[in-house]
Design a protein that fits this description.
Layout: E1 2-3, E2 9-10, E3 20-22, E4 28-32, E5 39-45, E6 48-53, H1 59-78, H2 87-96
Antiparallel strand pairs: 1-2, 3-4, 4-5, 5-6
Length: 97
């Protein structure tokens, strides 16, 4: 078990790399995992953990994607902005559920 800059415990898989970028609060946000050539985005917002592959080998691009994702989630949560969806896609999602 390792710790973040804020002293919080973090569980990393043994194959995970230690190439980690910390946000202003000391939370991990852009990490390189195991043998993957891609960067991963990982952060917490309102107690919920968000993680996904950036599908890029560029750390700078991954950091930009992380900022855009956080902004979109914040706008959705606090400003009430929702992603637009077409009637066709709504119907498709309804039929698949």
């Amino acid at each position: 078990m390792t710790q973040t800059q804020a002293g919080l415990p973090v569980s990393l898989h043994p194959s995970d790399s230690v190439l980690i970028k910390f946000d202003q609060l000391g939370n991990m946000s852009v990490i390189k995992r195991g043998n993957s050539k891609f960067w991963y985005i990982q952060f917490q917002l309102n107690g919920k953990t968000f993680i996904r592959s950036a599908r890029t080998t560029s750390k700078k691009a991954a950091e930009q994607m992380e900022a855009e994702w956080r902004t979109a989630l914040h706008a959705n949560r606090f400003l009430g902005e929702k992603e637009r969806i077409t009637v066709r896609n709504a119907f498709k999602q309804f039929c698949e559920s």
